[in-house]
Amino acid sequence: MRRLSLALAAAALALAACEVPREAEAYTTVPITPFLGEPVLGDKGAPVTITEYASTTCGHCKAFHDQVFPELKAKYIDTGKVKLVWAVMPTPPAAVSLAGAALARCAGEDRFFAVLDDLFDRQDALVEASRNPWQLQNRLREIGARHGLTPDQVGTCMDDKAIDAACSELSPLIRGIAREQLLSANAIASSIAFSADKKNVTVSADARNYRAPLDGSKVRVRVPTGDEMDLRYAVKTGRVDQLFEGDDRGRTNRYTLGDDDVLVMGVRVFASQLPKDVLYKLTYRRAS
User: Fold this and answer.
1) Based on the number of CB atoms within 10 Å of its own CB, is 39 exposed (0-12), middle (13-18) or buried (19 or more)?
2) Phi and psi for 51 in degrees, rounded to 5?
3) CATH tag, 189-284
4) By C-alpha distance, which of 14, 31, 280, 230 is closest to 136?
5) Does the pLDDT value for residue 70 go beyond 80?
6) For the structural domain made of 6-175, what CATH number should be given?
7) Per-residue pLDDT tens over the stretch 128-174
8) HSE-up of residue 176 (Cα within 13 Å, Cβ side)
9) What is the rounded CA–CA span in Å between residue 96 and residue 13?
10) What residue spans define the domains of the chain?
11) pTM for the complete prediction?
């Protein structure tokens, strides 16, 4: 008999709760046949590939899943024009995100994306349950049961080394990089603010202020990981580019105004360890 993954339980206990946390129940390790390949939705021979770096605990990912993905799927994936490759990019609570990815793999290739749908639909309940290992275990078991998995199979999935290796090897955001360092270095800010004077521009991401000259000169700043990087701005009509550069990695944030006064933040993350640049966009609405 084994306990639910220690990492999962530790993450759950780390979050404060009003109620007294209860330990996860023991389970029996049983044989499983997880899907360890590359998750692909659509025709594998489609001429265009979209790689989605996502997490089932990410609010922005859920918004994309609920508001954008249905039309994308209907117009391009279901018609054979595009195939979508899914790669896990854990977000807080990261252990719950990884548990969801493991659950999808345990359900098998045919059910992989159906499990992701289920996890996104129950994102709030899972994040809330992460405060209590026993509740979280039950939520995962409920989702697993809907996709043909027994409680013991769900428990076995959480601790399966082959699944953990598959997630690590197939996601370029994890392979060869310290997972927690990369996540903290590229954390998603809940709010963005701008200010400028005659010489400098400042972009504030939550509680962090990044100030540099308007003329594009570099300044040294400390990033969330504690490392120092060069920062410079390129300000043009209707656009502000924010460039962070280190010895072997960096990030570019391009800010533009979209329709309805929406701020669009286009992100490019690059590093020597990554096989290719990671590109994604975030949108922010003006506070009322």
Assistant:
1) buried
2) -100, 120
3) 2.40.128.20
4) 14
5) yes
6) 3.40.30.10
7) 888 888 889 999 999 999 999 999 999 998 888 888 777 665 555 44
8) 7
9) 12
10) 6-175, 189-284
11) 0.56
